[in-house]
Amino acid sequence: MSIGNSPEDDRASDDRLDRPDRVADESPADETQAADRQADARLPIGRVLRQARIDAGLTVDEISTSTRVRIPIVHAIEQDDFSRCGGDVYARGHIRTLARAVGVDPAPLLAQYDEGHGGRPPAPTPAAPLFEAERIRSEPRRPNWTAAMVAAIVAVIGFVGFTAFSGGDDSDSSKSVAEGSTPANTKPAEKPKPTKPADPKPDPSDSAIAGVPRDKVTVKVVAPDGRSWISAKDHSGRTLFDGVLEQGQDKTFQDKQKIDLVLGDAGAIELYVNGKQVDNEFEPGQVERLTYTKGDPQAG
Q1: Residue 257 — φ and ψ, nearest 5°?
Q2: Minimal CA–CA distance to 101: which of 43, 75, 62?
Q3: Which of 39, 93, 120, 150 makes a 20 to 30 Å CA pair with 268?
Q4: Distance CA 133, CA 146 (A)
Q5: Sheet holding 288-293, edge to edge
Q6: Which residues is 219 bridged to in the sheet?
């Protein structure tokens, strides 16, 4: 007597054989749909920053004071309007600054911004196309001391030779006068003036040192190769300057205690503090906050 499988057992066996194929076919699609749902669930950058600020109990004025980002720009970023930032470089810098101020990791927000604005961090805007009309600054010419010395030596030798040659004529004239003849009116020979070396032209960096008072802190900001937004305040918080420094321009600030600086594009800036140039390794597009006192230069 043979024992066979029932129809129910056959159907269960078929389901077990078919199920792995269906699971293998449907798994990639399910993962793609889950990733799409996760991307759709991400909140806009501005809403994330605004909610984090509210959760931290901070107002827009307080955020603007602590980060030096102007109030209209903070409002615009919280509404996902990045047109007032002045470009992708400044927009990324503001997002990073505001995120840190409200306790949010800026990396995901920057990645989200890059996805919506080209998929990668923007390269710094080259300065040449924007400022083609700017005058090309020539390097200061330094005096050629060797040529000046050679010219002086040649002048001295020529003067000595001329004096020796004219001495014989003077003896003949004296002899004629002794014999009673009237000497002709002659003018004394003019001595050649020695050539003076040209005065050296001042080095542009010397202007940052000359006239620096010792009882104050003096900060000079120069934009030699590009433009940058800068903000400067004195020790009492009073704004000394808030705007864009164009290529080739410079600003000098003084205070009896300290100068607070915010550089929108620190890589385009050269600093002179109390008459000395400050060495830095700022990257293009990097936002920096610095403070200098009478004891500097040193990084603030």
Answers
A1: -125, -60
A2: 62
A3: 120
A4: 37
A5: 239-245, 228-233, 258-263, 288-293
A6: 253, 273
Select from 124, 125, 99 the least CA-distant residue to 112: 99
CA distance 75 to 52: 14
Max Cα-Cα span within the chain: 176
**Would you place residue 82 in the very low, low, confident or very high pLDDT band (cuts 50, 70, 90)?**
very high
Strands 288-293 and 239-245: unpaired
Positive or negative, the CA dihedral 276, 281, 287, 289 is negative
The 10 Å CB-count burial string (b at 16+, else e) for 266-275 is bbbbbbbbbb
Distances (CA, A) of 297 to 23, 35, 85, 168, 222: 67, 52, 31, 68, 16
Interhelix angle 106-116/88-101, nearest 10 degrees: 150
Residue 99 burial (CB count, 10 A): 20
Could you give the CA distance from residue 77 to residue 83 in angstroms, rounded to a whole number? 9
CA atoms of 77 and 95, how far apart (whole Å): 8
Residue-wise pLDDT tens digits, 185-218: 556 566 666 665 555 555 545 554 556 787 888 9
Predicted TM-score (pTM) of this structure: 0.33
pLDDT in tens, 89-147: 999 999 999 999 999 999 999 999 998 886 555 455 444 444 444 444 444 566 677 88
